[in-house]
Input
Amino acid sequence: GEEGNGHVSSDVSVLAGFETKSVLRDSAREKNIFIHGMLAGQEAVVILEKTPIREDTVSALLEGSRLTLEMRNDIYSTYRAQPPVQLNELKATLVCPATEKHVKKYQRRGTFLLWETGEDYRTVTLPFLLSQSFSLQWVYNILDKKAEADRIVFEDPDPQVGFVLLPDFKWDQKQLDDLYLIAIVHKRDIKSLRDLRGEHLRLLENIRSKGEDAVRQRYDIAPNRLRVFLHYQPSYYHLHVHLTALSYEAPGSTVERAHLLSDVIQNLQADPDYYRDRTLAFPAHADDGLLEKFKEAGRL
Amino acid sequence: GEEGNGHVSSDVSVLAGFETKSVLRDSAREKNIFIHGMLAGQEAVVILEKTPIREDTVSALLEGSRLTLEMRNDIYSTYRAQPPVQLNELKATLVCPATEKHVKKYQRRGTFLLWETGEDYRTVTLPFLLSQSFSLQWVYNILDKKAEADRIVFEDPDPQVGFVLLPDFKWDQKQLDDLYLIAIVHKRDIKSLRDLRGEHLRLLENIRSKGEDAVRQRYDIAPNRLRVFLHYQPSYYHLHVHLTALSYEAPGSTVERAHLLSDVIQNLQADPDYYRDRTLAFPAHADDGLLEKFKEAGRL
Output
């Protein structure tokens, strides 16, 4: 259906027919839940997450909420509050049709730290990646402007050092506290941090300077208020860089998975083959095929 | 007023008269906000927080929510959802009257990323540290068994490569999910990561192997379930190493502050003077003296 105001479409009931099979994961700290189920005969994953409390809605929240006292002790009291519905939305993300890989990705699992030597990468990790067929179509859609073109914050179209900068799915863009952007490079032959060499310094420095400029211009946030980093392992093997608000402890920004872009640049300046030879630690999940492969290779 | 059901009391409007002075802190990840203001002529702090999404309400949430499509790309789509009001409450906490200490406790400080060259350390950071008189007496009390002796998990008494391993203050030791230990070295002349040289490799490797063994013996946790890291800047300038459960995203484990011990060892193996010369990024707070010093030196 169409919304009354005409510029957004509304579909009141798209998730009403969702049949839950299992809860994959939930976080009381982050107020989200990941659910696996069926939608219109197809496998699907639905992610529900409460939205951040916006500073500019606080007065309306306090004035418009219906309160119920739960506890009072000395100067402290707690209440349950029912705020006006339009001030208290959820974010819903639908993956449909979802593959077994999506289900696995979201499932809560035991996590183990692996130490991957350059040799491990060539003999264990790379063959495993090549045997997988996680589609990068959605990345190419973005680079080709076939999807999300209206979300692009900045683009440098150069095929060698260019990139597209856009908001990450996880960010609802309602407040800057949890700013989360992704820079996706136009080059299609760099799988990850592991593939980076001295020759890619121009690309990385370009992302750093133009990405930071774009964030300053669009959001008025200085480079020293940003965390700019790469993941290893990444969740998809087309080179991309994460830019988040420094004060936001984004999932995946912990030291065992994140690598500051400024450190990556410094490492490649010191040694163009740093990431070919270096032992890289990364967290692997119990039901990842990769952890299995490391086990089989006697590297666990 | 009284609720109709009789066993909870309701006060629809207790916060309606709250006058906001400032937002002390908010977390987009945790969906909360801390507000300082006045209530009925008294200083007050109000904390609003979204509630976790309960598994047993998911069906009702999916059936009862009004959805608006925000983005669609390939198999992914995102929506804004307005759920039934009784399924989407907030938690409100009121501190009233609040003292200045409450206000300070909840206040967030602006955080800026600094990039400290080896030269910056010698000309800005080190003189600043030496001008401060942070007492290390509490550290020496632990090393000398004058305090917390009963909390020690493991000790290697060797004066050159030895250390004391004990639970961090932040860990209540009630569950292993958030295990947090600290290894404090017996040597008293290493301020931080910045002072580490090739000659300290034996010390670091000793902490790694004996610390991991002790955690395995005492808590039955394997080394690949641990995050073992140093802070830069540390919160006190006597060398210590953090050991946390890998699955616990402990505060201070983000990439801009944490350095994996295994990476530190690898870096010193490659270059004994790595931490003398390397540019190290670290987060500094607006009301830290150190940030001021970097400003004065024109390094911000």
Q: What stands out?
A: Residues 1-9 of chain A have pLDDT under 50 and may be disordered. Residues 201-219 of chain A form the longest helix (19 residues). Chain A is about 25% helix and 30% strand. Residues 72 and 148 of chain A are 49 Å apart (CA to CA).
